[in-house]
Amino acid sequence: MGWCFFSTFITILVFFSVNSIPGSVLGSKADQECKFPAIFNFGDSNSDTGGLYAFWGEMPAQDGMSFFGGPVGRYSDGRLVIDFIAESLGLPYLSSYLDSLGSDFSHGANFAFGGSSVRFPNTIGSIPLTLDVQWIQFLKFYNTSQLLRKRGGIYRKLMPKPEYFTRALYTIDIGQNDLTAGYFTNKTTDEVKAYVPDVINRLLNVVRNIYSFGGRYFWIHNTGPVGCLPYVFVRRPVPASLIDEAGCATPYNEVSQFFNSILKEAVVQLRKDLPSAAITYVDIYSIKYSLFHEGRKHGFKELIRVCCGHGGQYNFNVSLGCGVSIMVDGKPVLMGKPCEDPSTYVVWDGVHFTQAANKFVFDKIGGGTFSDPPFLLKMACHKKNLQAH
């Protein structure tokens, strides 16, 4: 009760404190590219660029090996989809809000945190940084960043301009952990489906909060096919009759599709409720599933088998994950080794995608084919034929 009151109080307080934020939006013509000056991202480990790393302080040494030369807070061998989004918009990679070392927030911030969910988790050892908490962090970031800007000097260079908050692209990629948490606590598919509407409502409430704050441009990813990820179907196997031709567990993918159908319907209503917003719904599921179903057509050799791991049919073991060593004769021996060429693999560590797979996903969503409305990423500030979708 106390936490709910505090959260509501902070939201109301900050909302009235930001009335001075310029309310102007981009006055682009329908055929003109948007000039997003910043990105503010909310999500889980699929788009975390350093939050969990800053909190925990340890990552497998193999993470980041293909691009950054070592771990930089990303659960992949290189860049994530959010990195490619930033690149395509001519913006620097997003620094995590929680990372105090060498961060540059001049063009946005990343509030995503590995393991995060929309709802507060009820399992021991789970991550408490829900989407609501990320929203509160965003509010604090706005107030603090603008106070720092007033100091001038380096602070002015490292913090976003106040008008960026109304002109920024707000990206959201979360929900996967809400689904898997249910299965990992032995819930049935019907029980998981039963709480999906609540997850969607909570997600959309954060969008409404951002809109009330002044945000107008939203890029919302649906959730991917969790039934194709070894960390799900190895941990909770299904009968062979429930494995599809791509090697994925159909019950878990059906839940992902159910989540996505509810989300898409809710976004349609949200557009009516927030008439000044440009909200793009992005079908990440279809793109990711195509990698598992026909990835070899796109140059991938290993579709479900894990690049960085150890043991079993899928090179995945819950206890011997990527970068994990065991003691042999008093000496550490690396068991969770990376594959020789991550660019030929879809799955990096059993949970996340390789840089090559992330690039494939971005190339698809950037072109607008999998977006509703079907805009290019660079046109996501526009509204066109929204009522038709």
UniProtKB/TrEMBL annotation:
<dbReference type="InterPro" id="IPR036514">
    <property type="entry name" value="SGNH_hydro_sf"/>
</dbReference>
<protein>
    <recommendedName>
        <fullName>Alpha-L-fucosidase</fullName>
    </recommendedName>
</protein>
<comment type="similarity">
    <text>Belongs to the 'GDSL' lipolytic enzyme family.</text>
</comment>
<dbReference type="GO" id="GO:0016788">
    <property type="term" value="F:hydrolase activity, acting on ester bonds"/>
</dbReference>
<keyword id="KW-0325">Glycoprotein</keyword>
<dbReference type="Pfam" id="PF00657">
    <property type="entry name" value="Lipase_GDSL"/>
</dbReference>
<keyword id="KW-0732">Signal</keyword>
<dbReference type="InterPro" id="IPR001087">
    <property type="entry name" value="GDSL"/>
</dbReference>
<keyword id="KW-0378">Hydrolase</keyword>
<dbReference type="InterPro" id="IPR035669">
    <property type="entry name" value="SGNH_plant_lipase-like"/>
</dbReference>
<feature type="signal peptide">
    <location>
        <begin position="1"/>
        <end position="27"/>
    </location>
</feature>
